[in-house]
Amino acid sequence: MSYYSLDMELSSFAIFISGLVVIVLGSELLLRGASWLAAWMGIRPMVIGLTVVSVGTSAPELAVGLTAVSQGIPEIAIGNIAGTNMVNLLLILGLSAALRPLPLQSNSIRLDVPFMIFSALLILVMAINGVLSIVEGWILFILAVVYTIFLLRASRKESWKIKREYSEEYSQPVLVKGKTNPWLVVWNAVLLIGGIILAITGSDLLVNGASEIARKLGVSEAIIALTIVAIGTSAPELVTTIVATIKNDRDVAIGNLIGSSIYNILVILGLTAGFSSDGIAVSKDLLMIDLPLAALAAIVCYPVFKSSKMVTRKEGIFFVTCYVLYITSLIIFRT
């Protein structure tokens, strides 16, 4: 390999890493600003956690999806969602349980997991003809609205412990001596807008870098999306879950992890397809291998979660092992 070629590969990787850093920073600012403003408007902390946070942690995937489709690289949009959901369910959730057995006490799990399975299977049915159409995209988004309504109703039945966790995690002191501090409102609005701008800028760098890396390595964009892009855009969920594991306040984090897996399909893919010009093309490998595996990961969660209302260390290690085997198979057989 020539020095020139090596330099070009390092340059592509640097662009990808720069985009990843910018997009993660942008999503964090967006999440902070949106959460504060929602609290300021009187929205309950639990509602913020179940909706604003779940969607906010999926902001990188949305930015990447819209950018990829606009640049004519649909494999990155679809591959990123399939890969991210497997990262969420197998790697992040598995690591959390491997570090410390994971009790599942949230009543919303009974709604979330079946809906997660339904969403994963639905996307398979919709993509069976090789295209996720504009109409199908908006159907997915409408289902996201319906799911959110049911989720908010279910949140009223949560235990006081879960409500306290959400309150401590997402409620912020927005009042100063009984009056709203206008500078705080302006500052958090700036964070929200700045986060959106950074997410868009970062996604453009990330998609360009990922596409160039795939071209130089001689692999498809889907492989890059399923691996480094998926792991990179899952950084907010990974950080949130690890911190929550250390603090032993994980009902909120795990609920948002599963919620993000649902919103990735319904909101992210829905809006990406809905705003595309001709829908999103789904490659044969994604349709026959990766999307079914993502659905299988969701299905496996149901008996594990329901058996003892706990993910044991052994089950966590099993999840992580499955993810490692999946990544290994990608490297060996598809690169």
Structural class: mainly alpha
The CATH class designation is: Mainly Alpha
Number of domains: 1
Count of alpha and pi helical runs: 13
Order of helices and strands: HHHHEHEHHEEHHHHEHEH
Shape: globular
List the quaternary state of the chains. Answer: single chain
Number of strands: 6
Q: Which regions are unreliable across 5 or more consecutive residues at pLDDT < 50?
A: 1-6
Fraction of helical residues: over 70%
CATH-derived architecture? Up-down Bundle
Q: What descriptive keywords fit this protein?
A:
mainly alpha, 6 strands, single chain, two-stranded antiparallel sheet, two-stranded antiparallel ribbon, 4% strand, A middle domain of Talin 1, 335 residues, disordered N terminus
Question: In words, what does this structure look like?
Answer:
By secondary structure, this protein is mainly α. The protein has one domain (45-171, 218-333): A middle domain of Talin 1. Helices cover 81% and strands 4% of the residues. The chain has 13 helices and 6 strands. The chain has helices at residues 3-40, 45-56, 59-70, 74-99, 109-126, 134-155, 160-170, 182-217, 221-233, 235-247, 250-274, 284-308, 313-333, and strands spanning 102-103, 131-132, 175-176, 179-180, 280-281, 310-311. The strands form 3 sheets. The protein has a two-stranded antiparallel sheet. A two-stranded antiparallel ribbon has the order 2-5. A two-stranded antiparallel ribbon has the order 3-4. Helix 4 runs antiparallel to helix 11 (250-274). The model is unreliable at 1-6 (pLDDT under 50).
